[in-house]
């Protein structure tokens, strides 16, 4: 079988540094990436309610994406405006983080090439344009934001599945982010009788790193390598967990084994090499007790997400993209369940 050339493979060193911490594999050269795109595009259009006018994006699908993200900015800003005493410090921090992530998304979509993390674009200025007397109740504003997040997740997903390469990752990342945010808002129940805004956290806005595009075979091989490491790490962690946490860990371990075996079979069908598991891996955190076992799983699932993104960008059919995007969403959800914050760009390094 012909090995995949180095020029077609990702930089595992740069991705592993993100925190998976288990796969002791040598790094190899990352493919060269294009020069940064221009940060602004010609033309202008009215922004969504609660935002300022900004240049019109030309990237395919970006105009609709901008409208969705601007609407989410406006709705989060409205929740902050009508929250008053019903929105405590923790709740206000959560909604502010939601708003800021959507501001970052909107700014990226206003660049000539939003798949290039080095491009920068103008973000809308959050504001509430209507009068206080016409604003919805706090409960209604929260529900409107939650519904808008769910709708945006579905719309971004629909854009991701027929897209190719980094465009698929861009829209898939936005879909994953919006879907996770909707789940967080539902769990937080900000307008309920017993709100719990601390149930999950959304991380500070941070930039993405450029993501290489590899062949689907190389991406599947990389997934298998990381799944070998994940399975090893879960087995270490499970020995320190009990009760519901152990049950959850065992269920995820089974899912990872099923995915590893499915991808291994697919690689064999493609007449490609199937990476074998190493005898042992060095965990990023030594699971000495339940707390450190939880930390290890959190680190592994967080570090696994860029490899899911690599796979999504490499996928060549809608079916492959569906599978990769579902795994990215799943890994993002699992990481949050073990205490991870939702990142600005799930699936990107």
Automatic annotation (TrEMBL):
Name the UniProt record assigns to this protein:
DUF4439 domain-containing protein
Q: Region annotation Disordered: residue ranges?
A: 28-56, 108-135
Keyword line: Signal
Q: Which PROSITE patterns match?
A: TAT
User: Which residues constitute the signal peptide according to the record?
Assistant: 1-29
Organism source for this protein?
Microlunatus phosphovorus (strain ATCC 700054 / DSM 10555 / JCM 9379 / NBRC 101784 / NCIMB 13414 / VKM Ac-1990 / NM-1)
Q: Which Pfam families match?
A: DUF4439
Q: Where is the composition biased (Polar residues)?
A: 30-44, 126-135
Entries under Gene3D superfamilies matching the protein: 1.20.1260.10
**Keyword Nucleus belongs to the record:** no
Q: Tell me where in this chain the DUF4439 domain is found.
A: 220-348
The upper taxonomy is:
Bacteria, Bacillati, Actinomycetota, Actinomycetes, Propionibacteriales
